[in-house]
Amino acid sequence: MVESFKVPIRNLFVLLSYAENMPELARSMNDVDEEMITYDFICRQFLKEFEVVERRGLVKDYVSKAEPTNRLSGRIMMKESMPYIIARKPMVVCEKDEYTANIRITQLIKSTLKSISLNRYVKQDTKARSFNHTEVMAEVEAPPLNKSSFAKLSFGRHNMHYKRVLQIALLLHEMTLLSHKSGNWSLFSAEIDEKALNGIFEKFLLNFYKWEQKDYRVKAESMQWKLEGNKAFLPGMRTDVSLSHKNGLEKIIIDAKFYKDVFQNYYGKSSFRSGNMYQLFTYLMHQDSEVKVRGILIYPFNGELINEKYMWSEQIKMEVLTLNLNNSWREIHNSLISALN
Fold this sequence. Notes:
The structure is a single chain. By secondary structure, the protein is an alpha+beta fold. It has helices at residues 9-19, 23-27, 39-56, 78-86, 104-117, 124-135, 163-181, 194-212, 274-285, 329-338; strands at residues 4-8, 61-69, 75-76, 92-100, 189-193, 216-219, 222-223, 237-238, 241-245, 250-256, 263-266, 269-272, 292-300, 307-311, 316-323. Strands 6-9-10-13-15-14 form a 6-stranded mixed sheet, with helices on both faces. The protein has a 3-stranded antiparallel sheet with strand order 2-4-3. The two termini are 37 Å apart. The mean pLDDT is 91.
């Protein structure tokens, strides 16, 4: 059975902002009362940003368009024209460049507007505003959105003012995908299954520590087994987050494990999940001997506050702690920063 976690929309917005490497979006909400940040609020932020773009005028560009015609213009496409020629029809297919707003970035905006106007988690006036905007973008298509739709977007002087509205559009799309996996959503909170939340939280932690502290170099680290023999069948070892202190003598390895229950139960005895402990301990034992290394397992808070510390030697330590995603963002931020101390 797949377990799920209830996460306030305000915190989900922050998690996704960092996971997508857009911390400026999370920071832009610092002065907003956290209780105001609902799903509808984020949609209205998107509309607010779009209206700024709209007042400046939609960006246009030349797009190649091929269509059958009985008037020669542009470039004749012989291969595409052959069926008409063989059928003795007075038509050829011509390709010409058209200066239009129907380009990728405006299509992403219109598709997002359409998605908001049909979203049952959004207030009626927000839906109406979104629908009205789609009506005045008649020449722009609204293709179905997917994750690749937002890939490799580039911004220059002519379209930099689109960046923020498209960043919010991406987060709204991510939320839409998550909401389709579970119907237990509202304006204020979302229920996310543990697998999806674990994937988001891993990316969040990696980018959070890249942006929010300056003492450590941060990466997801691949390691090689210190074993002799055929390594072809050995499983890979890759940390969620490795923080190497800039003085070179300290290291922290963090592993996020999102399970409803921190503990396993064996013949009535509760203990931390053995597989998680073994995995992290293996990472620690594969570090350079001269480096002080700490391993931290982070679980979601589920009614039981955990903050346990263990020592193998002066060089190797291990911790297990829980993080409450229902807390305010400031409390979550402070907990993650204090975990490094």
